[in-house]
Specification:
With about 80 residues, this protein is mostly helical. The protein has a domain at about 40-75. The protein is about 50% helix and about 10% strand. It contains two helices and two strands. Helix 2 links the parallel strand 1 (about 45) and strand 2 (about 75). It is flat, with a radius of gyration of 23 Å. About 0% of the residues are buried. The model has no long low-confidence stretch (mean pLDDT about 75).
Length: about 80
């Protein structure tokens, strides 16, 4: 009985993974998109925790890293 349940679970997992893999079709864009003007406005990142915590320090580091490639203002609150 246990072996039969394991086989049925394996078959079900295989079928679900095949169905999910079939849904991943990638469509081609009709025209290439230019990313030169991204972002058009300053980006605000909301940190829902108190200042000085781990997430706050991570966001502050990301602000410094993202300024150079995007040449846009990043701020957090």
């Amino acid at each position: 009985m246990r072996k039969r349940v394991l086989v049925l679970l394996a078959v079900a997992f295989l079928l679900v993974s095949i169905m999910v893999g079939g849904c991943g079709e990638v469509e081609q864009a009709a025209m290439p998109v230019s990313h030169e003007k991204y972002p058009e406005r300053p980006v605000s990142m909301i940190v829902p925790f108190s200042p000085g915590g781990g997430l706050d320090l991570t966001i502050r580091s990301l602000e410094k890293l993202c300024f150079q490639p995007f040449r846009s203002a990043f701020s957090h609150s």
